[in-house]
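Listing S7. Sequence submitted for prediction.
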Amino acid sequence: MVSIFDLLKEYIDSGRIKLDKSKVQHTYTVHDPCNYVRKSQISFGDNYGELSRWVAKQCIDESLYREMCEDYMNNLCCGAGGGAWAMPYDEERLTYGKMKVDQIRDTGAEIVIAPCHNCRDQVMKGLGDEFKKGREGFDMGNYKETLYTWELVSMALDFEPWSEAEIEAAHAERDAQFERDGVELEEEE
């Protein structure tokens, strides 16, 4: 199995995708999902805290980065994990998320990068909606939006038309990757 972080690092390092840091000009911070950081560290002995930040810093100028917590292993849960986002306990989930609201506000960041779908929904649709409504206790400061890691990468992509040789080389890389990862596609008729 290959994580999105590992795949993006491979693509960026190899030059398979090129990024332009000038395309996004907002202060940003990275949220550390429990599953990708703390649980992965416990279960697998490794986590994606540093790599998540590395990918973000390839997309936006590092001078605009704002850290949420001194040690990403101690970053706070957003309150949506473990199925809480899908459950009918909105007030409990939002109350738990108030600690994340404070962290986001204290960074001064406009964009929160949240690689996990539950975290993204909690920060954007849960906490962010309460902030936009002006609900007391949900002041997120300069917050404007929440992005998945891959959304941020797509916003920073630097597109250049490819030559026939580059297209051929990209197809060869794709085929090698599919073979490496055991991907089999059905033939088109």
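Caption to Listing S7: primary sequence and predicted structure tokens for the chain studied. Residues 36 and 111 are 19 Å apart (CA to CA). The chain has seven helices and three strands.
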